[in-house]
Structure formats: structure tokens, C-alpha cells
Structure prediction request, 318 residues.
Amino acid sequence: MRIAVIDLGTNTFNLLIAELNAEKQLEFLFRDRRPVFLGRNGIGQNIIASDAMLRAWEVLREYRRVSQAYRVEKILAYGTSAIRSAHNASEFTAEAEKILGAQIDVIEGSEEAGLIYMGVRQSIEPTRETFLIVDIGGGSNELIIGNSESIFWKKSYPIGMARIKAQFEISDPITPSGIDSLNQHFESVLSDFLQQVLPKYSVNTIIGAEGAFESFLHMASPMGCMHQPAVSATNVHSHYLPYECFRRVRDALIPTTLDQRMKIEGLEPFRAELIVPAVIFVDFLLNRLQLPRLIISEYSLKEGAAWKYFFGANHPVM
Prediction:
């Protein structure tokens, strides 16, 4: 059976087409990412703006055409932070479901975190060591503590980068006081995680789930940082990024204007607007956890949703 998974994120929409091959292994046939900015000009008021709806519906029409071309038998569509918090979400989803011919499952943050975990664990070496998965979104950020066998703790926090931009007047370039304000906000919002949850677990590694983390990886290479695969398998979908390399990326981004960021090698232009608060957030976590490197995974929610559909939530990674 062939399926399409669509992740309707706050900043980007993602399409993944997957099936089980003859060996009953999960195979990914096609993937696509489109900047939609569903939260633009509305997330601060918990609405989806009309122009954002039009952009989103157009992308969904294309995803429907691609799914038909691949003869997909089922479409799984997931709405996340911008949709679940919008007062006018039903207006958006009603038309979106007509376009797709499929229901949009608007999931809670806890379920979103679980799907992210199932996606990321496919890309890393099986381990019983404890890791922290971090997914940076536009509307929310998900934190998951676990190992390859199970989740120990997970939570979604409403501090996605589009939400941060709507809440704070971030100068361009950002000032030291602006950085301090963001760090104080992260400290406050994550107080339960930092003071109550984190001391219970011996976290050895931070794993960043695609998105902004992939941008850090791609920016690091032109800066002379050669990242290493984080797995021994032939098909590599996760990479080590030493803290020194991340710091180079951070120091390159902080003093830049938007126009300058649009020209940075390795940084997709649509990420330029929100990459600075994202790099500050990751730097905040790395400083608090005092870990020497990141693992960056190419997988996240959509790969997890495909895994769950074919194998169930508790099936071990092969």
C-alpha cells in the first residue's frame, strides 16, 4: 500500500510518499517541502490570515496532484500548532479537506511529539543511552526525552519561532539585549523542563529534528566544518555537528541583517527570517545541558507518521 503524509506546519508544509517494499521495509519514494507561512500575520492573534489560507490551499492542490500521480491509496494529513490554536481553523480545514479529499487530523502537541520521536529514531543508531530530541517549529517546539526503545517524557511548548517573532520586537540585526530577552523567555517557559524534568535523566545527546537544524548543518560545511555521519549504515540520515561548528554558525548569524542572511551559503532563503531566534534557542539549550555536540536528523513528524501507519507506535526499529 502506498500513502502520502502531509505535515501542515506553521511555516512549511511537507509531503512524504511512502510504501512497504517487497521485504516489508518502509521505503520513501518522494518528499517535498514548501514555505507556506501559515502563521504569518495571524499567529499572534491566534488566527490564520486570509492570504495565508490561499497560499496553503494552493500548495495542497499541488500535493493532491502529486499524490494522484504516484497512485497514492491514502492521504494522512496532520495539522499542528498554527491550526490547533487558530480561532478560525475550521474555515481553513474545511476547504483544505475538500482539496485533498482527505481528513486533516489536527493533533495536540503531545501527539506531535510522539510522531517526531518515531520519525527521528529511524535515522539514528539504536541505543539505550538517553537523548533529548528537539523539534523547532513555527508555532511550537517539541522536547522529547527517551532512547531508541521508548519515550520517557515529552512536551510541546508554544515557543515556535513565528510565535516568538510575533511576541517580541526583534531588531535586525538582533542586539545583545534582544538576545537576553529571548533567553529569559526561554528560561521562564521551560522552567518545568529545566528544574524538574531534566535533573531526573542523564541526557547524553541532543538530537535536532530536521528544519532549522539542517540549515545549521548546511551552513557549517562552507565554514570548514566537516560533519560526520551519526550512523554506520549505508543510507545516512543523521549527522554529528560538533559544538565548535555550531558556534561558528551562531556567530555568523547573530550580527546579520535579513538581507545578508538571504545570501548566506547553505541557508535556504525562506528560513532567513526566523533562523536567528532558532539559533539562539539551540544555543540556550546547549549551554544549559553542557553537551559537546549535536546529532542532526533528516527525519521528523512525517517519517514518524508513516512508521506508525504501517507498523504501529510500539514496533521496534529494524
